[in-house]
Amino acid sequence: MAGEGFYQEYEVFSRRSDTSPMQYQFSLLAPNAELALVMAQENFLRRESASDIWVVKRSNIRKMTLDEKESLQRLDNKEYRNTKGYGYLKKKWRQYEQGMLDEKEIMSWGGKQSDENPHS
Amino acid sequence: MDNAISFEMLTEEEKYKHFIERIEAKSKIEADDWMPEEYRKTLIKLISMHGISEIMGALPEKEWVPKAPSLKRKLGIMAKVQDEMGHGQLLLRVAEDLMKPYGKNRENIMQDLFTGELKFHNVFHMEAPTWADAGLIGWLVDGAAIITQTNMLDASYGPYARALKRICAEEVFHAQHGESIIMALAEGTAEQRAMVQDSLNRWWEALLMFFGPGDSSTTGTSKQDITIKYHIRTKTNEQLRQDFFTKYIPRVLSLGLKLPDESMRFDDESGKWLYRQPDWSRFKEIIKNKGPKSESRLRLRKISYETNEWVREALSSRSSGM
């Protein structure tokens, strides 16, 4: 690919750790993707830790127009999609003398070996 | 949806109204969004000046990298100089995206700096002859910068607000780095304490000037009304200067330093600091690149730009991609 000048626009993304989401950092100018990676570390990651960095040429990104962005406004009627719509279960389970397996509880399981088995 | 298909079809007047509604509703304006010409031009002027000042501001401090009194201090000041260049990179990106519709880019910013068209901050035209100046720049110049920059953290222009968020977080380190140098000197020998006092005397006027004139009567023009109107900042120059006094004067005094303005006092009645105005005609001269170090720092910047030209050449159009 022939170069298109020294000042090419790149958008920079990085992941703080292996399990963190890719996060947008900022844009920078660089003559090619390799130097964009070097600049990304110099410009945005002098202190913060990172486990991965992506640089994307800005011209390859399809951004939304102002109109499209406005069409993203959500109606506030999505309770049936969220646990919020099922919050009454907590009270119900209490009647059966059981705790609720809520998101916090379930996400904490994480494949760890149990310390003890209550049935052993 | 009605408004989802119609924005491009609005008249200029309707677009303006829509724009004002958005900034009043605290939604952020992005680079590709429609914006009034006056907004774009004000932002370009403000942000390119801010960006280039970060870069020119690294120069008085970098003079102290080889002369820092210990390895720890050397590492600290090197990190700070590097941050300033990083801030310059962030801000120039924001300015460049705004200039794009005018067909301008970084090359133009650099050329405008060299011709004097683009000005840089008054404080960076001044000399930093002692190690106390290195400390005072971090403590009070960066302190003043924190006051003006935090005032714009909620700016209506999204890219600037995001850049400032990163910058302010690092400024906290800069301020503490400066405080640490000043504290060591203030608790040191009589000679070291005198060095801090000298430095404060030397920087006092520049610090007052930092926030700009109170109104346009002093220098002919002032952008502060426009930046407030468009929700780029909230406070006036004078309010920011007063905030700076309130935060820093007690700290300056607590270290046993004397204010270079013996008439200065806090007036309970008006709730304001009363102080002697700096010489604003001198301010005008300084920002026209007629300050004590203006020429030599611009020359340094120009030499580095020209010396590195071959690198830009080698890596641009004539090189094939790796």
How far the N terminus sits from the C terminus of chain A, by CA atoms, comes to 66 Å
**Helix and strand sequence of chain A:** EEHEHHH
* Class from secondary-structure proportions of chain B: mainly alpha
Output the CATH topology of chain B.
Ferritin
**Strand content bin of chain A:** 15-25%
Describe this protein with a few key phrases.
heterodimer, A: 120 residues, Ubiquitin-like (UB roll), 4 helices, elongated, B: 322 residues, mainly alpha, Ferritin, two-stranded antiparallel sheet, 14 helices
List the helices and strands and how they pair.
The complex is a heterodimer of chains A (120) and B (322).
Chain A: E1 8-15, E2 23-30, H1 33-44, E3 52-57, H2 66-70, H3 89-95, H4 103-107
Antiparallel strand pairs in A: 1-2, 1-3
Chain B: H1 2-6, H2 12-24, H3 37-62, H4 71-99, H5 106-115, H6 131-150, H7 158-186, H8 190-210, H9 216-219, H10 224-229, H11 237-254, E1 265-267, E2 272-274, H12 280-290, H13 294-307, H14 309-315
Helix pairs in contact in B: 3-4, 4-7, 6-7, 6-8, 6-11
Brief overview:
The complex is a heterodimer of chains A (120) and B (322). In chain A, 24% of the residues lie in helices and 18% in strands.
Architecture overview:
The complex is a heterodimer of chains A (120) and B (322). Chain A is of the alpha+beta class. Helix content of chain A is 24%, strand content 18%. Chain A has 4 helices and 3 strands. Chain A has helices at 33-44, 66-70, 89-95, 103-107, and strands at residues 8-15, 23-30, 52-57. Chain A has a 3-stranded antiparallel sheet, covered by helices on one side. Chain A is elongated. Chain B contains 14 helices and 2 strands, in the order αααααααααααββααα. In chain B, a hairpin with a 4-residue loop joins strand 1 (265-267) and strand 2. Chain B starts with a helix and ends in a 7-residue tail after the last helix. At the A-B interface, strand 2, helix 1 and helix 2 of A face helix 1, helix 4, helix 7 and helix 14 of B.
